[in-house]
């Protein structure tokens, strides 16, 4: 009985062999049309024979032919979940509600919803904006801020909602072109990502934020170090409005990268300034500086080499003391960056180790609150603009970030949705079904830059209009007027807390005042921070 039970594993394999032989008999005695099923069942029989003989997959050896169904369903699992199973509010990683909102606004379709909210408004984590009984009407929703402090000679008037860093190489040329053309049409900025400025960025004509990462692409010497003359040449492009030094990104903070030689084509090599036929390494750490003071000096050098354009840095908060080391270095050297971009751990990427995506880095809300309050405590907040990035796709997302201390917001995946991304999560496979995250020319050809650029501009415009309506509903004149007390958040079932209690602004200059009270351990970390080194002091246990 046990032996019979064990043989049932081969039922499918035996069945296709029997059907193959039966088809062959029917060819001989009935009709030549049975060559078709004979060929099909013959191929399955050979597949089953291969399954039994191979040594790599145990499930195929035990369940020849049938075992392939497991791999088939595993391959289409994201699509089955996305289209048939997931709830509209399930974040995998973006909910259907969020994606639909972007699609509708990008296409200029009606984005209203009937029959009330689907959110569970009494569950912990639900948050909302408080509104006024005297709402205001805002006509001009081209909300902008000026980035550049007194050391900057070319300040930039930026939109408060821009395209976050995504490199050419990670995205296709057509995707980059569509995004940049949309940025040009909508008069907002497009971050190049660490892959430098490509021909598609130049062709688009939109404003650029040139990101300088540890690989120094676009400003790279032959040995991979920083080349000041190459940087000067790249930074001089009129399209480049700001320079962003990337320390880390939310999706994989503290992690470098490797672009294999097999994936480097002529266009990528041209943009990055790297040779063909060699692996391209992006180290985890910068080689141009190693201490907080050296970092500030490097930022000053970038400002000088760029002709006085706004210079800042982007990071995902890790050790909070290390950020305080940077702030102390600003005070000691007098070199104050024009901006800081806080990236949340919920940020996206084409590919990252699961442990890094899930368990390294501080989420945007906490990171932004910490950076904002540290700068306030050090008396530097009014000299530095702060950007925020991390799943920001709606007017509420922007309003919340501004209330928590941001001056502007960036979005990567939101603008990817606007050019057709369907969240297939195949970015790392080169098989993106809509031509966004791929270097396959045939797949990329499916994305039309002209029509998609119009969607990019329309998504930005309609999101700004929605932000204007939300700002007016709160009784405010401009989005920059949002403060924590305009937010409410449910901390547990039936219990709610006002934003200025959950995300309080700490007093100006308290970190510099020896007699001022400590707040949430800030002064204890401040005491342990040094402008001379990122290394921690000895800890006594």
- How many separate helices? 21
Report the β-strand fraction as a percent range.
Answer: 5-15%
Query: What can be said about the biggest beta sheet?
Result: 8 strands, parallel
- State the distance separating the first and last CA atoms: 65 Å
- Quaternary class: single chain
Low-confidence stretches: none
Instruction: Let me know the number of strands.
Output: 15
3D shape: globular
* Backbone structural class: alpha/beta
Overall mean confidence score, pLDDT: 90
Q: Main traits of this protein?
A:
40% helix, eight-stranded parallel beta sheet, three-stranded antiparallel beta sheet, 15 strands, alpha/beta, 541 residues
Describe the structure.
- The termini are far apart.
- The protein has 541 residues and is α/β, with parallel strands linked by helices.
- The strands form four sheets. It has an eight-stranded parallel β-sheet with strand order 4-13-12-11-10-7-6-5.
- Strand 10 (311-315), helix 13 (320-333) and strand 11 form a beta-alpha-beta unit.
- The longest helix is centred in the C-terminal third of the chain and has 25 residues, at 449-473.
- Helix 2 (11-29) packs antiparallel against helix 3.
- It contains 21 helices and 15 strands.
- InterPro entries: Aldolase_TIM, GltB, Glu_synthdom, YerD.
- One of its GO terms (molecular function) is glutamate synthase activity.
- The chain crosses the membrane at residues 12-36.
- It comes from Sulfitobacter albidus.
- Keywords: Membrane, Transmembrane, Transmembrane helix.
């Amino acid at each position: 009985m046990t032996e019979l039970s064990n043989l049932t594993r081969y039922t499918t394999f035996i069945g296709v062999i029997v059907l193959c032989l039966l088809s062959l008999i029917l060819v001989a005695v009935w009709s030549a049309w049975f060559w078709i099923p004979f060929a099909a069942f013959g191929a399955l029989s050979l597949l089953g024979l291969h399954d039994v003989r191979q040594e790599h997959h145990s499930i195929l050896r035990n369940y020849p032919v049938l075992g392939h169904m497991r791999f088939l369903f595993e391959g289409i699992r994201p699509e089955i979940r996305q289209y048939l199973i997931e709830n509209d509010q399930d974040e995998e990683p973006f909910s259907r509600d969020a994606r639909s909102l972007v699609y509708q606004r990008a296409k200029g379709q009606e984005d209203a919803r009937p029959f009330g909210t689907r959110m569970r408004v009494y569950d912990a984590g639900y948050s909302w904006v408080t509104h006024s009984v005297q709402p205001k009407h805002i006509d001009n929703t081209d909300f902008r801020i000026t980035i550049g402090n007194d050391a900057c000679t070319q300040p930039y008037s930026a939109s408060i909602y821009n395209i976050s860093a995504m490199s050419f190489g990670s995205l296709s040329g057509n995707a980059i072109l569509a995004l940049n053309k949309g940025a040009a049409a909508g008069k907002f900025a497009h971050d190049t990502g660490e892959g430098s400025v490509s021909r598609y960025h130049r062709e688009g004509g939109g404003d650029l934020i040139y990101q300088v990462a540890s690989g120094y692409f676009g400003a790279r010497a032959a040995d991979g170090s920083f080349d000041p003359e190459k940087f000067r040449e790249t930074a001089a492009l009129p399209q480049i409005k700001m320079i962003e030094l990337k320390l880390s990104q939310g999706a994989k903070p503290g992690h470098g990268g490797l672009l294999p030689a097999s994936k480097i084509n002529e266009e990528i090599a041209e943009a990055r300034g790297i040779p063909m036929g060699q692996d391209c390494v992006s180290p985890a750490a910068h080689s141009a500086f190693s201490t907080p003071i050296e970092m500030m000096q490097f930022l000053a050098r970038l400002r000088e080499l760029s002709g006085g354009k706004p210079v800042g840095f982007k990071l995902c908060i890790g050790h909070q003391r290390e950020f305080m080391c940077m702030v102390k270095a600003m005070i000691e050297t007098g070199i104050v960056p024009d901006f800081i971009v806080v990236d949340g751990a919920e940020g996206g990427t084409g590919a990252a180790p699961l442990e890094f995506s899930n368990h390294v880095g501080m989420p945007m809300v906490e990171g932004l609150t910490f950076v904002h309050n540290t700068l306030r405590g050090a008396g530097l907040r009014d000299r530095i603009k702060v950007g925020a990035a991390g799943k920001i796709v709606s007017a509420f997302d922007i309003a919340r970030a501004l209330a928590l201390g941001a001056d502007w917001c960036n979005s990567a995946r939101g603008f990817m949705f606007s050019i057709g991304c369907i969240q297939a999560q195949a970015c790392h496979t080169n098989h993106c079904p809509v031509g966004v995250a791929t270097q396959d020319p045939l797949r990329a050809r499916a994305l039309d830059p002209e029509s998609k650029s119009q969607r990019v501009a329309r998504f930005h415009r309609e999101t700004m209009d929605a932000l204007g309506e939300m700002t007016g509903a709160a009784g405010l004149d401009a989005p920059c007027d949002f403060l924590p007390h305009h937010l409410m958040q449910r901390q547990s079932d039936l219990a709610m807390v006002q934003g200025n209690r959950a995300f309080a602004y700490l007093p100006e200059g308290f970190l510099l005042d020896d007699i001022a009270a400590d707040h949430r351990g800030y002064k204890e970390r401040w005491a342990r921070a040094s402008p001379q080194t990122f290394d921690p002091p000895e800890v006594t246990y």
